[in-house]
Amino acid sequence: xxxxxxxxxxxxxxxxxxxxxxxxxxxxxxxxxxxxxxxxxxxxxxxxxxxxxxxxxxxxxxxxxxxxxxxxxxxxxxxxxxxxxxxxxxxxxxxxxxxxxxxxxxxxxxxxxxxxxxxxxxxxxxxxxxxxxxxxxxxxxxxxxxxxxxxxxxxxxxxxxxxxxxxxxxxxxxxxxxxxxxxxxxxxxxxxxxxxxxxxxxxxxxxxxxxxxxxxxxxxxxxxxxxxxxxxxxxxxxxxxxxxxxxxxxxxxxxxxxxxxxxxxxxxxxxxxxxxxxxxxxxxxxxxxxxxxxxxxxxxxxxxxxxxxxxxxxxxxxxxxxxxxxxxxxxxxxxxxxxxxxxxxxxxxxxxxxxxxxxxxxxxxxxxxxxxxxxxxxxxxxxxxxxxxxxxxxxxxxxxxxxxxxxxxxxxxxxxxxxxxxxxxxxxxxxxxxxxxxxxxxxxxxxxxxxxxxxxxxxxxxxxxxxxxxxxxxxxxxxxxxxxxxxxxxxxxxxxxxxxxxxxxxxxxxxxxxxxxxxxxxxxxxxxxxxxxxxxxxxxxxxxxxxxxxxxxxxxxxxxxxxxxxxxxxxxxxxxxxxxxxxxxxxxxxxxxxxxxxxxxxxxxxxxxxxxxx
Length: 614
Ligand code: ATP
Ligand code: MG
Description:
This protein has 614 residues and is an alpha/beta fold. It folds into three domains: 4-36, no CATH class; 56-483, ANL, N-terminal domain (Rossmann fold), CATH 3.40.50; 497-599, GMP Synthetase, Chain A, domain 3 (2-Layer Sandwich), CATH 3.30.300. 28% of the residues lie in helices and 22% in strands. The chain has a nine-stranded mixed beta sheet with strand order 2-1-11-10-12-13-14-15-16. Strands 17, 18, 19, 21, 22 and 23 form a six-stranded antiparallel beta sheet that branches. Strand 1 (91-96) and strand 2 form a beta hairpin. Helix 10 (265-275) crosses helix 11 (294-306). The longest helix is centred in the N-terminal third of the chain and has 17 residues, at 107-123. The radius of gyration is 24 Å and the shape is globular. Adenosine-5'-triphosphate (ATP) is lined by residues 249-254, 256-257, 367-371, 389-391, 393-394, 414, 477-479, 491, 494, 588.
């Protein structure tokens, strides 16, 4: 609860109900008011007008293309064209080391460094069709390798540095990477034990360590290989459908999939950077995601650079004090983070914020999981800015649905589709074909008309799985959602997580959001538990705020609280207070694991489990 405003999401999904704050004395249905914002110029302007006048050729015209009509290359759009234009001396990337060390690169310097890396790859006979993987923390060389590989027309495949040898082996084998960029400690711990099994891996490039290093056999040192390479490099013709990035999904619903993207994706990265994140010249943009996940590449590298902003990279992990200090000291103007981090900031309370001046913040956005309405209201109150939720997936390569800077935020909603993105809510007819649901507020699967530039082009080694994502002219996201009468989309849950209970279809998000309104609750996750009468009942797992002592009385209170908010048909019937919730290394709650453990079933692929297999 925030002050005397009770918050939960109305079930019918219509704006007229969503936008009212409605104090129901019985506490049954309480809705949010959309957060109106002061008028101000935004890149998007009026959503409907921007949509109507939009076309993909128009978005392509915002980029340069390779000189001489030689195609489209991500590194050219992100780096090279700025280096040869007025942004030459603008700071492109600012790195904050774990301690106090800072390193900064202008667009011109980045141009030279990426040219060197591209030439170093050529010297190793690595070229088109090959894959360069990276396994490092968020250090400058990772970003140079990513952009340099793209420059060379080589596929870049980032791996999250906290993976253990097994998940790394699985991903390296699937990717067929010929080159790996890593550090000596990571090499010794995670690659050496599996290297003989990585038959495609021909070269390992080891990053320099602070205190020098001795080279392991079969490895090249970054210094001698890259620093010694020529700083001049002309990008070869790059047809827009040239493979560019290989990203693995988070493994939230099962074994992670490798999604392949092409250079044309940069059209989407740039357009969404402009429209969904409202990026402009002079912005300092902080994306807290690691490039090991797609957000950390599409928006943690490419989009801000194509927009000519200054990208801030922090090598350190989450710390509420450090984050607020960073926002203030670096004058961050646009911030892109995730619900887990936001919930951790909420949990940390106002102490770390004391005395901080966050007036430079102009726009805050969130992605990766549903953003509970409570978090949006909190940020409006505490940061003076609502978080703008947006939705996309590894497979879509870029933001598809967003709360835009120019629109009132509807807390709990993912927003409206980007210009050029044709979204739909679909259901399966009895004959198995898909049909769009036009009636507002009705739940169905979130689907898109294929054709946006950053759409994945394959799941590596899984062509059938890829084909199954498409049917009757739609790409099926695997998520359930509904659309209100104004075209805002509301997340219901992943198709796998949705609970069928006594004839009701219950989305975990709604139940979890209601529990989060209780002052004692920091996080919540719900699952369906088989029940002979109802089919399934809702069981909730709850993490308490610091300092709150668990007790059977509190469990009963939380059950009663949820029942009053949601009604008996939807509220959890069982509730357990737990010391932690299982989540992926990218911070997503693993409901499938909670369920497997509850039911004593096999736990499935745990390669991305936080705290596991590192
Ligand atoms: P896997 O596909 O391996 O199970 P994953 O789906 O979590 O893992 P990602 O591609 O990283 O892998 O995540 C995309 C998913 O995250 C979306 O399909 C959706 O379920 C969830 N998601 C992302 N943003 C939002 C959002 N704003 N609201 C609700 N859910 C979101
Ligand atoms: Mg997925």
